[in-house]
């Protein structure tokens, strides 16, 4: 270790700072030696003890051999003669804790040393999950060398995540995803060192999750008998995620976003059959009746079963977009409000508190959407708040830990036009665009959260903004959300990737480097633009973000630097 550090220092002194390889997310500390070692023909990854690390070692060893990566951001003609240093014979893994439970707070730190003299590389990790993260980084150091061989850029890397919660939200209720597409998303997440799949599994449109305690919900509420997740499917997803260090957190959204329950229990619901435009954020209308005893018993059964099936300590209790305009439609709610002299909001907050207390009896910690707190309710301070509207500091100041998914940055479904029918606003009788037309040209085009969130926009979000050390709550991390009104497994790769990689980097690396300088889109750009192709080479159908010509002529497509191109 000492020798390699000395060499590293010398290499930096001689100016080899840019080894032209592209790591994403960028590790907290990378010292390039400006060199590369050839991988020996019988290169081995040794030392794995945890079965998931053993599998990962095999998987990454095959990946680097199949991928034979050639960076796209380096012009082909300028690629260096590679493998000039020694021969790398092995990567030895050493893990301090092979048995840590994959859960909130797990230590994912690792140190990776690929010495410039070759020989043995080492990966030292605090836990088995850290080893999986380090293997991913190692795979990104490897690329195609001379004579059909492989080389590894040599470097000393010390790394850990800035935020422990780095998620993707998948919505399998508006449109269904077959299990294999969820697994592929988990693969892509692991390439990006993301570690939480937030499964928004049910909603007003369909109920695809089988419950042993209430099989009627998916029998009647799924789109078809083929669009149901069986206990075996759920187990498959949990296990697959675990093997890649990805936690599965389930959300049963309620009391709104539940209309599908009416297929089997109409008596538990309010506003069923009413026009959605008056009583819900989107069709169909229908919310759980907060004072119906049968509805509450159902809620308890579902939470008992879900918290039993999903091993994570966190449980997502939903809680967004309640429409209190719905409640005067239901006589029992009106009577309750009068009897107890309560507003509809107060009834909602009371119900949420009862729900959060019940989750605690199941030995879980709740996440809820920010809505009831934003609207004036107060929830137990250990409740994790997931934001989509307000800045995270609003809730850290109140003592809540926060997961950030601000819709104006992290909703990756936005900007695809409208999906509700019979909307005359698309018709422009004059065929002329006018400044008054804020719908079509220059307007939102029917997408409530327009425009499309670009990777540059996503990367520019600082989750620590105005969150003070004195705040009793902290930011746990973020999630990029793919709501499924206009997406499903046919488009999931391109809708999420590569843009979610911009989110993944600020979740892992943070918005500030180890010298406390704000990370910039300019610095991120070459790594990101290369990563698009690397994701594609790994079987993820990431969307192109520029003509390949630009990738092959780095910076020639930049807006503001003609001088750099000329130089
Ligand atoms: C009902 O609640 C309001 C607001 O808290 C209060 O001002 C009012 O006195 C209450 N009425 C009764 C009958 O308790």
Fold and architecture overview:
- The chain is α/β, with parallel strands linked by helices and 567 residues long.
- It has two domains: 29-159, Chitobiase/beta-hexosaminidase domain 2-like (Chitobiase, domain 2, 2-Layer Sandwich), CATH 3.30.379.10; 165-420 and 437-515, Glycosidases (TIM Barrel, Alpha-Beta Barrel), CATH 3.20.20.80.
- It is 32% helix and 19% strand.
- The chain has helices spanning 2-13, 51-67, 128-141, 179-191, 215-221, 231-243, 276-279, 293-309, 331-339, 344-361, 371-374, 393-396, 407-410, 455-459, 492-496, 499-508, 521-537, 548-552, 562-566, and strands spanning 29-46, 87-97, 110-114, 119-127, 142-144, 150-159, 165-171, 196-200, 247-254, 269-270, 287-288, 314-318, 365-369, 384-387, 402-404, 475-482.
- The chain is globular and about 80 Å long.
- The two termini are 38 Å apart.
- It holds the Pfam family Glycohydro_20b2.
- Keywords: Glycoprotein, Glycosidase, Hydrolase, Signal.
Question: What are its keywords?
Answer:
567 residues, alpha/beta, Chitobiase, domain 2, TIM Barrel, eight-stranded parallel barrel, five-stranded mixed beta barrel, globular, binds 2-acetamido-2-deoxy-beta-D-glucopyranose
Condensed summary:
This protein has 567 residues and is α/β, with parallel strands linked by helices. The chain has helices at residues 2-13, 51-67, 128-141, 179-191, 215-221, 231-243, 276-279, 293-309, 331-339, 344-361, 371-374, 393-396, 407-410, 455-459, 492-496, 499-508, 521-537, 548-552, 562-566, and strands at 29-46, 87-97, 110-114, 119-127, 142-144, 150-159, 165-171, 196-200, 247-254, 269-270, 287-288, 314-318, 365-369, 384-387, 402-404, 475-482. It folds into 2 domains: 29-159, Chitobiase/beta-hexosaminidase domain 2-like (Chitobiase, domain 2); 165-420 and 437-515, Glycosidases (TIM Barrel, Alpha-Beta Barrel), CATH 3.20.20.
């Amino acid at each position: 270790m000492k020798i390699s550090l000395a060499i590293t220092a010398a290499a930096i002194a001689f100016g080899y700072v840019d080894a032209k390889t592209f790591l994403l997310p960028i590790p907290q500390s990378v010292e390039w030696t400006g060199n590369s070692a050839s991988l020996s023909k019988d290169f081995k990854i040794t030392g794995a003890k945890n079965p998931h690390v053993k599998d990962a070692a095999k998987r990454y060893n095959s990946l680097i051999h199949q991928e034979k990566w050639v960076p796209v951001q380096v012009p082909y003609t300028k690629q260096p003669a590679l493998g000039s240093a020694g021969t790398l014979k092995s990567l030895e893994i050493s893990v301090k804790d092979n048995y840590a439970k994959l859960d909130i707070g797990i230590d994912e730190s690792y140190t990776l040393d690929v010495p410039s003299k070759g020989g043995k590389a080492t990966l030292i990790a605090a836990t088995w999950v850290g080893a999986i993260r380090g293997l991913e980084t190692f795979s990104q150091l490897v690329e195609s060398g001379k004579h059909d061989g492989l080389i590894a850029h040599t470097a000393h890397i010390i790394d850990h995540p800035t935020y422990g919660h780095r998620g993707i939200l998948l919505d399998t209720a508006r449109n269904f995803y077959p299990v294999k597409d969820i697994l592929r998303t988990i693969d892509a997440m692991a390439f990006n060192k993301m570690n939480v799949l937030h499964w928004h599994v049910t909603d007003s449109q369909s109920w695809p999750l089988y419950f042993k305690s209430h099989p009627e919900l998916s029998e009647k509420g799924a789109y078809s008998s083929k669009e149901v997740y069986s206990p075996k499917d759920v187990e498959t997803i949990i296990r697959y995620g675990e093997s890649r260090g990805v936690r599965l957190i389930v959300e049963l959204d309620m009391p709104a976003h539940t209309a599908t329950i009416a297929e089997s229990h109409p008596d538990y619901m309010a506003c069923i059959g009413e026009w959605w435009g008056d009583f819900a954020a989107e069709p169909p209308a229908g919310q759980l009746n907060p004072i119906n005893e049968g509805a509450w018993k159902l809620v308890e059964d579902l939470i008992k079963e879900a918290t039993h099936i999903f091993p994570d300590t966190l449980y997502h209790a939903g809680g967004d977009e309640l429409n209190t305009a719905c409640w005067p439609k239901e006589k029992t709610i009106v009577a309750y409000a009068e009897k107890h002299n309560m507003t509809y909001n107060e009834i909602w907050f009371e119900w949420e508190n009862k729900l959060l207390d019940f989750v605690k009896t199941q030995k879980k910690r709740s996440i809820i959407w920010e809505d009831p707190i934003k609207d004036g309710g107060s929830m137990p301070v250990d409740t994790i708040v997931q934001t989509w509207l307000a800045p995270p500091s609003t809730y850290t100041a109140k003592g809540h830990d926060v997961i950030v998914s601000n819709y104006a940055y992290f909703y990756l479904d936005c900007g695809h036009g409208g999906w509700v029918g019979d909307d005359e606003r698309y018709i422009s009788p004059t065929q002329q665009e006018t400044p008054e037309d804020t719908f079509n040209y220059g307007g939102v085009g029917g997408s409530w959260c327009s425009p499309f969130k670009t990777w540059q926009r996503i990367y520019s979000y600082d989750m620590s903004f105005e969150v003070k050390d004195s705040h009793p709550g902290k930011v746990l991390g973020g999630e990029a959300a793919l709501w499924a009104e206009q997406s499903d497994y046919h488009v999931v790769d391109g809708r999420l990737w590569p843009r979610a990689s911009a989110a993944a980097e600020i979740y892992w690396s943070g918005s500030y480097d180890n010298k406390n300088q704000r990370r910039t889109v300019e610095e991120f750009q070459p790594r990101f633009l290369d990563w698009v192709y690397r994701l594609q080479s790994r079987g993820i159908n990431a969307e192109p973000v520029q003509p390949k010509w630009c990738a092959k002529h780095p910076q020639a497509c930049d807006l503001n630097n003609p001088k750099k191109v000329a130089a």
